């Protein structure tokens, strides 16, 4: 049995894949190790749940929910989740990005930090929350221990804040619920006392403004070295959050710090309706008050509109040998039709096939992810959408897709839905739609959700053409809204228009463009 209390030795192999390098830290729930992912060839953080916690269903539910929440997030200011699973003996583990730096709690050990550090780190936390809130995810435990600081030579303050531990996240999507409920006399309370909004203490329904309250507490603490509401008893902390006005910034702080007082005051309003209406609004106010602006991060996946179309980067790899094209889409929502992310085409082009293509509506069906499961709905198409022969109700909520399901768009276009195996409801590393009708056979539409591996060999997630042992492997990943690729163990590079890659004796030409909504 894997027992983290024994401090796993260097070289220990976990789940047949993760080789322990050293212990990074310990907590009440889990131990975190630096490990080497032998399959993906990268350093990762391996989090192992304490064995005694496995008997507590509320803790194991939290552990699984952390993966389900964070696996969907791609912000450069969020620590990404790669894998989650359970070993044969029941031990649970979680694999995330390895952020080798210090925690914000360590930076605050000596007291207040500079106003510039406080502003930039708060802006980065708000940027992470902006994406999470846009996907219906509340963090609900924003505090210094959950902010990691990664060194960055070109950053204005030398370190970038990365928000982690969505273990208390409340997923507003009901299919992702299964919440941990810590019941008290006041109702359901979740979070860390010093950072909890008044509505959290009362057990009321929460929205994103509870996270903004916590950022206000965090900002006050970074500027002063202490939290605004601190006491020796839980009852007194609760009373202060519910009834006491937040203290003003103490005398003696710099003008740069004091300019932030209105932002903190608004974030700490007792009524959620009086706070900032969004993380973006608070971020804008903080930049205006401080005079410091956060540089635009790498292009992020755009929020989906009400029909599921987003502006994303798309790359097509077209082989000289006729094995493609393979579309790599860095978006978790796609539209099937004659416009949208996956454009249905009939081959070869001729008048008869053009007529068949017109049997598909311009925006025919939508595929999206809910609770780690692919779902398909009909967009009121002219000729209908079916899954395994059952026609979808255009006014319905759609159906869940399973590996091997056959999707038909009208009478002529058919796909088989395929996806990689997942654990605990996390998003799959990849999913694809393989065209199987005779008018478009051979077109593979790959939906890159976290990472896709394209190459020859049984170990690869997606394989093109015949299996050829020993051939070079092209790995393609979606990273912060960009598509990057590498051959074998080479360093990844951005996919660019006109690049040529060799996989075995087959050459692939890359075509990259940004698709607007």
Description:
- The chain is of the alpha+beta class and 517 residues long.
- The chain has 3 domains: 4-97, Phosphorylase Kinase, domain 1 (2-Layer Sandwich); 101-290, Transferase(Phosphotransferase) domain 1 (Transferase(Phosphotransferase), domain 1, Orthogonal Bundle), CATH 1.10.510.10; 312-515, Sandwich (Tumour Suppressor Smad4).
- Helices cover 19% and strands 30% of the residues.
- The chain is built from 10 helices and 32 strands.
- The strands form 7 sheets. A 10-stranded mixed beta sheet has the order 21-20-23-24-25-26-15-14-32-31, with no helix packed on it.
- Strand 1 (13-14) and strand 2 form a beta hairpin.
- The longest helix is centred in the N-terminal third of the chain and has 20 residues, at 115-134.
- The radius of gyration is 25 Å and the shape is globular.
- The chain starts with 12 loop residues before the first strand and ends with a strand.
- Residues 1-6, 173-188, 297-313 and 455-468 have low confidence and may be disordered.
Short description:
The protein is of the alpha+beta class and about 525 residues long. The protein is built from ten helices and 32 strands.
């Amino acid at each position: 049995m894997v027992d983290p209390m024994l401090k796993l030795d260097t070289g220990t192999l976990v789940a047949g894949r993760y080789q322990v390098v050293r212990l990074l830290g310990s907590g009440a729930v889990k131990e975190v190790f630096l490990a080497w992912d032998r399959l993906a060839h990268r350093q990762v953080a391996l989090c192992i749940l304490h064995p005694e916690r496995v008997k507590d269903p509320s803790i194991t539910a939290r552990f699984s929910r952390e993966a389900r929440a964070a696996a969907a997030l791609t912000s450069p200011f969020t620590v990404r989740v790669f894998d989650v699973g359970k070993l044969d003996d029941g031990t649970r583990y979680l694999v995330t990005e390895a952020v080798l730096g210090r925690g914000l709690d360590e930076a605050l050990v000596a007291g207040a930090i500079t106003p510039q550090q406080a502003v930039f780190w708060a802006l980065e936390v708000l940027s992470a929350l902006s994406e999470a809130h846009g996907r219906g995810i509340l963090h609900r435990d924003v505090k210094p221990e959950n902010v990691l600081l990664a060194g960055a030579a070109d950053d204005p303050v030398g370190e970038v804040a990365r928000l982690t531990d969505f273990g208390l996240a409340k997923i507003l999507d009901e299919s992702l619920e299964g919440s941990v409920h810590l019941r008290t006399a006041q109702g359901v309370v979740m979070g860390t006392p010093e950072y909890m909004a008044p509505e959290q203490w009362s057990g009321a329904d929460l929205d994103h403004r509870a996270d903004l309250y916590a950022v206000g507490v965090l900002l006050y603490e970074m500027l002063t070295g202490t939290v605004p509401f601190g006491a020796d008893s839980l009852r007194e902390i609760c009373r202060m959050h519910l009834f006491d006005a937040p203290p003003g910034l103490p005398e003696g702080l710099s003008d740069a710090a004091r300019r932030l007082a209105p932002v903190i005051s608004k974030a700490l309003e007792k009524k959620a309706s009086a706070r900032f209406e969004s993380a973006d609004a608070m971020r804008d106010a903080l930049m205006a008050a401080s005079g410091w602006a956060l540089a635009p991060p790498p292009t992020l996946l755009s929020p989906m509109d009400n029909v599921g179309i987003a502006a994303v980067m798309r790359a097509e790899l077209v082989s000289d040998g006729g094995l493609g094209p393979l579309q790599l889409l860095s978006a978790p929502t796609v539209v099937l039709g004659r416009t949208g992310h996956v454009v249905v085409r009939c081959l070869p082009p001729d008048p008869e096939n053009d007529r068949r293509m017109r049997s598909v509506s311009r925006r025919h069906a939508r595929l999206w992810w809910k609770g780690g499961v692919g779902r398909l709905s009909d967009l009121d198409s002219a000729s209908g959408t079916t899954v395994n022969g059952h026609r979808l109700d255009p006014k319905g909520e759609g159906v869940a897709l399973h590996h091997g399901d056959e999707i038909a768009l009208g009478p002529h276009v058919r796909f088989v839905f395929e996806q990689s195996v997942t654990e605990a409801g996390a998003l799959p590393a990849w999913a694809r739609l393989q065209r199987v009708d005779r008018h478009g056979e051979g077109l593979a539409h790959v939906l890159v959700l976290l990472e896709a591996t394209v190459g020859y060999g049984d170990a690869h997630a997606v394989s093109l053409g015949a299996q050829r042992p020993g051939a070079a492997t092209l790995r393609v990943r979606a990273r912060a809204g960009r598509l990057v690729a590498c051959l074998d163990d080479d360093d990844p590079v951005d996919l660019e228009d006109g690049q040529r890659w060799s996989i075995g004796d087959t050459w692939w030409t890359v075509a990259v463009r940004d698709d607007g909504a």
